[in-house]
Amino acid sequence: MINRVLIRIKVVQLLYSYLLTQSEFKIEPPIENPSRDKKYGYDLYLDLLMLILEMSGLDVSSGRRQSPLRGIALNKHIDRNALARSLNSIDEIRTIILRDRSGVAQFDSVIPAIYDAIPTLPAYKSYVRIKKPELKDDVALWVSIVTNLIADNPQFMAVARKNPDFTLAGFTRGVNSLLHTLNEYNDNRTLFNHARHALDYSLDKAHELYYRLLLLSVEITRMQDQRLDAAKHKYLPSDEDLHPNMRFVENKFVKALTDNADFQAYVDGKKLTWDADVLLLRGLLDKIIESDLYTEYMSNPKEPDFEADCNFWRQVYKTIILPGDELAEALESKSVYWNDDIHVMGTFVLKTIRRFAQSATGGTDVRLLPQFKDEEDSRFGPSLFELAVKHCDEYRELIDSFVNEHRWDAERLAFMDIVIMVTAITELMNFPAIPIAVTLNEYIEIANAYSTPRSGAFINGILYSVINHLKEEGKLIKG
After folding, report:
1. What pLDDT, in 10s, does the model give residues 312-335?
2. Are 327 and 358 in the same domain?
3. What is the CATH number of the domain that holds 432?
């Protein structure tokens, strides 16, 4: 019942929130009106960050410079390590690379010697004995590399002095800034677990909304029944008060829904109610009573049949309840997850009422829609999210290569666009049963709805380039 359209939207939203907060490392911002020491220190700080990426096997020049490690056997223990991948995922770092703002090339002559010396460090010898190094282990190794092979390296210092802006105080400041960034990292496991639980909770809340929307028909009918009963017992009741038209409160669809076993079990189990929203119920009831739809329904001389009663409520939902601002405002105050769910869940409410109308047994055989169509759909959201997090750096690099090729301004790209493309590539690469066209169309629609006016066309162009590249590489084999 929760379809993949809604699942994709929720994965993109939660991935966006997670990636905004997940960076283990906080890059120091530029200093306004810096002194000479501070200016050189900050420039060296950025260069050293690039040097870590370079020695970790990552391209920091976007193809504009040949790495000094080219032709050297790469050290498998530090190649593309977790620390480097985390740094590489930070927007400030990506901007430096895409804009070629780093001066790391000045150290090309000493980088190979530093790289070759890494295995001599006691910290490295301890590191390689760890069966599955964690980020904290990477941090400890790189702190040792920076301290022993860079900060106290006469050859590195000699190269640094060739920079006309060099100052000794600035050099010390730059090295200390890097060590501070490394030592102040955050463990993302807690953030990841929170995001995963939030995804599950969001999908559960969407399912709850489906039942809450159906429950509105029952609660509104109950309120009208109470009004009619109160009118009978007022001081001077009219003949109309004493003998009201009961067609609305005796609606056969509402009766069948109330008696439905699936409905009863969920509503009772979750203790769902609209009791705290009397004003909403009253407002919706008044709108229904004032509508031409209600007038026509109540004045029909024919005895109402089950199908007609179902169709009446289907039209009430379609034209009065679902489009109304009152319901949207009430839902927004109840759950932040329901802002984007009401349209999809409303569609499934209308589908459910149609199924009641088509029942040959007055609705007794109707099963309400399950949370997911099948087990595969139930796993789709969590798998998509986890794989997007796992491969985020890899897919981000792929995106950046085509952004640069098409001469887009990387600094002006909406972060939501990046998240949408990472999720789309995750789906393309890891869900072979989903056709390429379906994935493309779904994420372009998400971009049109949740990002900038130009995002749909931009994402379409970049994803087509990525797809063609992956096919040429033999990494994407599906239609």
Report:
1. 999 999 999 999 888 998 998 888
2. yes
3. 1.10.940.10
